[in-house]
Amino acid sequence: MSVQEVKATHEYLRKVASTREPVRALSEFVWNALDADSTVVAVDFVRNGLGGIERIEIRDNGTGITKARADRDFTDIGDSWKLSLNRTAGEKRAIHGKEGRGCLRFFSLARWATWKTVYA
What is the pTM of this model? Predict the structure, then answer.
């Protein structure tokens, strides 16, 4: 198992991660799942005892993230594996987003995020 800590300046996060539209932040993760050739994407809002949202879980059956790619993508914000591709490998879908910063939009909804991935 590998643990990566994403670091970005407060000003960068303010510019990139801020959005007034929570749906836009969530849609970035759905797009990322589709770019990983997912055919199933689930978004669950886990509620606490008072009915408030405790966490958001997003699961998909995409190709996963290799350790090497995670090391690069989560430490070099702004870089993206999508830059050199126009279509996904399996489903041949058009690639969405190539700026390597969409994952930071989640911080407009929460103070922290955890990505768990499995790959072949």
Answer: 0.75
Q: Which two tokens stand for residue 44?
A: 């669950």
Residues 6 or more apart whose Cβ sits within 8 Å of residue 71: 2, 4
Q: H/E/C letters for each residue in the chain?
A: CCCCCCCCCHHHHHHHHCCCCHHHHHHHHHHHHHHCCCCCEEEEEEECCCCCEEEEEEEECCCCCCHHHHHHHCCCECECHHHHCCECCCCCCECCCCCCCHHHHHHHCCCCCCCCCCCC
Q: Is the pLDDT of residue 23 over 80?
A: yes
Q: Which of 39, 43, 20 is nearest to 109 (CA)?
A: 20
